[in-house]
Design a protein that fits this description.
Elements: H1 4-7, H2 13-25, H3 28-31, H4 36-52, H5 59-78, H6 91-102, H7 115-119, H8 143-152, E1 162-165, H9 169-179, E2 188-191, H10 199-203, E3 207-209, H11 212-217, E4 221-224, H12 231-238, E5 247-250, H13 257-263, E6 269-274, E7 284-290, H14 296-306, E8 310-314, H15 318-328, H16 330-347, H17 352-373, H18 377-384, H19 390-400, H20 403-430
Parallel strand pairs: 1-2, 1-4, 2-3, 4-5, 5-6, 7-8
Antiparallel strand pairs: 6-7
Bound molecules: NADPH dihydro-nicotinamide-adenine-dinucleotide phosphate (NDP) and (2S)-3,4-dihydro-2H-pyrrole-2-carboxylic acid (A1CAB).
Length: 431
């Protein structure tokens, strides 16, 4: 790799001090443990914070600066009486902070391991500064490992600034899920044209505004949560404020990654996410697909942010419309069924409130058992049916009404509608 651009950097004192302060705040000591994805994530967050402060350094430039700072630190440690290292001008200004960062670290290294030596990089070495060689390396390409990363450095998310454009039900559901993780309300901002939906966000301690641009300028991750037909309008409005600091996550049904990328500046990190309303109670089912400039670590960051919203999966974009029918809309199909169950009981003479309460508990219990047992629904259904008993009579009636075929058709229609919305949004963005 030609890294001459990375090496020729002129850092001023303020910039270096800010960089070190950010690393200290991000608790570098807990993060630099040889896990490449996690280290990349840390530098990416630092990059976003530096950009926000007006210092435009790439992630690679930050890594290289860190490498030089570490070399200076080790040089001083090895030869305390020698003159200050020359590669970091004014090293004496940073020495105290570097010592604070370096000497409070290594909590994951086992006894007997000389972690300082394993970590040491010299100015001559061309190894990647952030990839250290400590025990238990963690390859970065499996869901399991990403989950591990999320579990092991949850405090990372608390440093991120999160924005929502649109203050409707879906934004509120995701915001609630995110806040039940590690994100602080003070780091979240939401915008909408009117105030009617903003009060509930304020109750959570979230800042509100009527300016979408204010949200973008103050955030690292921006959720676009407006109705699909408004996405082009909103992206046109914010595009000139979107930088490489940002990750733009659209939850709009149907709106494709191609449309998002066409409306955003070149190389923008865009992600298409399809959540569902139970994010409100941290029981959502969410599927996302990464755009062409969104890296694996961006996906890991999003997973980490959303992990309290419910089940979070990544898949190819073609599955997003299907997931919209299955789950985004699917919850409404389940509500319809719950409502019909209750109405059946009311018809047979049960008071309505009790019937609805029992119907909701029935859906909840059936869902939990289905998820937690890992059994196929047909297996559980057969476990409920006594031969010649009540259930099989009821199921026969449902089959006569075509419940299975109409449920499959409902998922199909909702998927097709999402695809249609996608075609419309593509055509709209080209106008
Ligand atoms: N509801 C659901 O279950 C799911 C929804 N989605 C997707 O989420 C998105 C949002 O849906 P939902 O939350 O239900 O919609 P809502 O109608 O509840 O909310 C839409 C929000 O967008 C705001 N808004 C309108 N115009 C603008 C604008 N120009 N700039 C900023 N904000 C604007 C509205 O403002 P105001 O408050 O002033 O009216 C409102 O707060 C949709 O694209 C939908 O496809 C995805 C999965 C599930
Ligand atoms: O009905 C809709 O279009 C949105 C998307 C999935 C759920 N609600």
């Amino acid at each position: 790799m030609d890294d001459s651009g990375i090496k020729k950097q002129n850092w001023d004192v303020k910039e270096t001090e800010l960089f070190l302060e950010i690393l200290k705040e991000l608790d570098m000591k807990k993060c630099l443990d040889g896990r490449k994805v996690r280290n990349n994530k840390l530098f990416k967050v630092a990059h976003r914070r530096m950009t926000a402060a007006g210092y435009h350094r790439s992630v690679d430039q930050l890594k290289f600066r860190w490498k030089l700072l570490k070399s200076a630190y080790y040089k001083c440690k090895r030869e305390p009486d020698s003159p200050a290292p020359t590669k970091i001008q004014g090293w004496w200004r940073y020495e105290k902070t570097m010592v604070a960062i370096m000497e409070s670290r290594h909590p994951l290294v086992g006894p007997g391991v000389n972690s300082d030596r394993n970590d040491e990089v010299t100015e001559e070495s061309d190894g990647e500064a952030s990839v250290l060689h400590w025990p238990q390396p963690c390859p970065d390409n499996t869901t399991q490992n990403l989950d591990l990363i999320i579990k092991m450095d949850p405090e990372m998310d608390s440093q991120l600034k999160i924005g929502f454009i649109g203050a409707g039900n879906m934004a509120f559901g995701i915001a609630k899920g995110i806040l039940s993780g590690n994100v602080l309300p003070a780091n979240v901002k939401v915008s909408a044209p009117s105030s009617r939906n903003l009060g509930r966000f304020q109750e959570l301690g979230i800042a509100v505004t009527h300016s979408n641009i204010e949200v973008v300028c103050g955030s690292d991750v921006v959720f676009v949560a407006v109705k699909p037909h408004l996405v082009p309008l909103v992206l046109n409005e914010i595009a000139q404020h979107v930088t490489d600091r940002h990750m733009i996550v659209s939850v709009a049904a149907g709106v494709t990654l191609a449309t998002l990328e066409e409306l955003l500046p070149e190389n923008s990190v865009a992600i298409r996410l399809m959540p569902n309303l139970p994010c409100l109670v941290q029981e959502g089912a969410l599927l996302f697909a990464r755009g062409s400039h969104a890296k694996q670590e961006d996906g890991a960051l999003l997973r980490s942010l959303l992990h309290r919203c419910g089940l979070v999966e990544e898949g190819p974009e073609a599955w997003i419309d299907i997931h919209t029918g299955l789950s985004g809309s699917g919850v409404a199909f389940v509500y319809l069924f719950a409502e019909a169950l209750a109405e059946g009981a009311v018809k047979m003479g049960m008071p309505s409130a009790l019937a609805h309460s029992i119907a909701s508990q029935t859906v909840l219990g059936a869902g939990r058992l289905l998820r937690d047992s890992g059994k196929h629904p047909a297996q559980l259904r057969s476990e409920v049916c006594t031969p010649g008993g009540t259930t099989i009579y009821g199921l026969h009636t449902l089959e006569q009404g075509g419940v299975r075929a109409s449920t499959m058709s409902a998922v199909e229609s909702a998927t097709e509608r999402a695809r249609e919305l996608g075609r419309k949004s593509t055509a709209g963005s080209r106008k």
